[in-house]
Amino acid sequence: MKLSKFLALILRHQPERFGLALDEEGWVPLSEVMEVLRGLPNFRWATRADVMEIVEKGSGDGKRRFEVEGDRIRARYGHSIARRIRYTPCTPPARLYHGTSPEALPSIRREGLKPMGRQYVHLSPDPETAVQVGKRHAPHPVVLTVRAAEAHTAGVQFYRAEESVYLSQPIPPDFLEFPEGE
Ligand code: HQG
To answer: What CATH number has the domain spanning 89-177?
Structure first.
């Protein structure tokens, strides 16, 4: 878990702080990541096999946050770095879901879903997953339904970053459904 969180820090948020330069799809040589780990007292223990275990099995919760191809590694989603990661657009299913805190609703009603600190809006393929995402923000999260196919037809781009994670450009409020009573 500690190693996975650290990989997220360097591959999503602060690569330059560790001397790494991501390419336009977020890739960086795995050998360079191993070198960063070797140089840090807290992570000197980590081997390539430890990194590969996180990549292949997910980090404890089964979520596959990273991807390795040959000698390169990248975070699949979640980036906050200034340079935008490029993805291949996809055609989304009719509906996607977004779990959030009740406190965010007034602003989401006005402005729609925005990426906030990240590069893209993060969406879930089913309401159950959205609840888990929302629980990171509030004990009793609210799940919004996104009329994704309709938004896509209207020009909003979608990408699939992982089995359980869709990304999108900002979603205007017209394509959002709020649960009754919210
Ligand atoms: C909210 C985790 C006010 C949005 C998860 C969310 C995901 C607004 C928060 C991934 C808003 C941003 C990303 C608006 C959106 N006004 N609030 N107009 N538009 N928001 O953490 O989607 O475990 O950056 O509802 O599983 O919660 O790290 O995004 O509550 O896949 O691998 O602004 O992070 O993955 O929060 O989560 P976040 P998220 P990992």
So the answer is: 3.20.170.30
